[in-house]
Design brief:
By secondary structure, this protein is an alpha+beta fold. The chain has a domain of 126 residues: Orthogonal Bundle (434 Repressor (Amino-terminal Domain)), CATH 1.10.260. The strands form two sheets. The chain has a six-stranded mixed β-sheet with strand order 5-4-8-7-6-9.
Length: 480
């Protein structure tokens, strides 16, 4: 139902309410305003839009102000339910069920009307839960990546907000401390509480009623992670986030809170000054940027994508690739041909074996960045890649630029060079003809199926979060 149709339906109910309140029939009111009762019935049912002159006449005949007829709220509880039912049955969600519409008549008991409306509310609630199949998630991710590429991965409003908050906490230079993060929380009316029983499906839990942000134990490895988690939790409040109405909105909120946390840990003014000095010296390096602000290599690499184009006039790309070559995260505004599926999604696609994101795994000294030039169909790119490992396996973090931009970076003198012809399958995806002829029909591998390929993302207000666990957790800590 369009907004205009909804307005007409409300207007009709208000006219009917005042008419019946005064004990008038349709014909009696129609006679006073020179309208047939059938014409007035169409107006009361929201099927015809009356002219202003007719409305003025109806208001006069009913002895009410015109403004009263035009108010947007229903005249009483029953009318509100009837309007809500009509809206719900006009919704495509109900139409997709192939069920007939039910007309709310005078004879319909109020309890029956309430039951029908309640069922529609539950149907809408379930449909609007933040649930997504892998296809929907990939599509939403793709749209988000394209949106950020269009703005060079830069969000000025969040940059300014982060700068204001870290300054208000007393931070001036160097790495943002845990104490300064705590001060930021206190300024928002929250205290940081470290507990060892957070629900498995959460990274943090915010108790809005009692002003608490629950985080994992402060002793966990990598203290920078706790700073980021706390900042992300605060960002929801600072950015005015409401419960996400879709998976795409959930992803956007997650991007915004991650961006805010990064902009606090590496504030724009100090970060741009550091990067600009390194560029002038032709010594740009992710590892130096990382160490200057006490963050992870990945966080520094991602932050570089926020600032490089807008403040250093450098286009670039970022890749996080698993040990088997699958792309987990990616960003580019320098034209490098990232692998995509038919929907344009990059997640889970395998990058070329010739790229440094994969060849770095064979490098003997993996404690420092690995540098490489790669000739591709789109041109030559220089990349710096750092490898690491988690319980789930190895991964690589790469930042690269077109050949002409390599002059600003440490490692540009590397003699390591490779040629990539991907997406031409003869580059690295099609076996050599001699080998293929020997084994075709004689090999039967047992594939390892990744569970997430077939499983929908868990439903709930926030995807993957068990609401019951969260509420039980908050109840357990209520008296702390």
């Amino acid at each position: 139902m369009s907004p205009r149709s909804s307005e007409l339906l409300t207007l009709g109910h208000r006219i009917r309410h005042y008419r019946t309140e005064r004990g008038m029939t349709l014909d009696q009111l129609g006679e006073r305003v020179s309208l047939a009762g059938s014409q007035l019935s169409l107006i009361e049912n929201g099927r015809r839009e009356p002219k202003l002159g007719v409305l003025t006449g109806i208001a006069g005949a009913l002895g009410v102000d015109l403004a009263d007829l035009l108010r947007t709220e229903a005249p009483n509880t029953r009318a509100a339910l009837e309007i809500e039912l009509a809206r719900a049955q006009a919704n495509p969600l109900y139409g997709s069920l192939g069920l007939p519409a039910v007309k709310a008549t005078k004879a319909m008991p109020l309890a029956a009307l309430e039951s029908l409306v309640g069922l529609h509310r539950e149907l809408a609630r379930r449909a609007s839960e933040a649930i997504a199949t892998p296809e929907e998630a990939r599509r939403a991710n793709t749209e988000l990546r394209e949106r950020m590429r269009a703005q060079n991965n830069y969000i000025d409003d969040i940059e300014q907000l982060a700068e204001e908050r870290v300054r208000a906490a007393g931070h001036r230079s160097g790495a943002l401390t845990h104490r300064e993060v705590s001060v930021m929380a206190e300024q928002l009316g929250f205290s940081l509480i470290y507990v060892d029983d957070l629900p498995n499906s959460t990274r943090s839990v915010t108790d809005l009623a009692n002003g608490r942000i629950y985080l994992p134990p402060a002793s966990i490895p990598g203290g920078h992670g706790l700073r980021s988690m706390a900042l992300q939790a605060m960002a929801h409040r600072l950015l005015g986030h409401e419960r996400p109405a879709s998976y795409a909105e959930f992803l956007w909120q997650r991007l915004e809170i991650n961006y805010f946390a990064a902009a606090c840990l590496m504030p724009r003014e100090a970060a741009v000054a550091s990067l600009s000095a390194a560029k002038s010296a032709r010594e740009l390096a992710v590892e130096d940027f990382r160490d200057a602000f006490g963050v992870t290599h990945e966080a520094a690499a991602l932050r570089l994508t926020n600032l490089a184009t807008s403040h250093l006039d450098i286009t670039l790309h970022f890749l996080r690739v698993t040990g088997d070559g699958a792309l987990q995260k990616g960003y580019e505004n320098d034209g490098i041909p990232l692998p995509v599926d038919v929907t344009g999604s990059i997640e889970g696609q395998y990058v070329c074996k010739q790229w440094s994101a994969r060849s770095a795994f064979t490098h003997t000294n993996r404690t420092t960045e690995f540098y490489q030039y790669t000739d591709t169909p789109a041109g030559t790119y220089w990349c710096a890649t750092q490898t690491g490992s988690t319980d789930g396996g190895g991964f690589s973090i790469s930042v690269g630029v077109p050949f002409a931009q390599a002059k600003w970076f440490r490692g540009r003198e590397t003699t390591q060079r490779a040629v990539s012809r991907c997406p031409d399958e003869s580059c690295c995806r099609r076996p050599a003809s001699q080998v293929a002829s020997r084994w075709v029909g004689n090999a039967w591998p047992s594939a390892r199926l990744h569970a997430h390929v077939l499983s929908p993302l868990p439903s709930g207000t926030f995807p993957g979060v068990d609401d019951t666990e969260v509420y039980d957790f908050l109840e357990a800590h209520l008296g702390d």
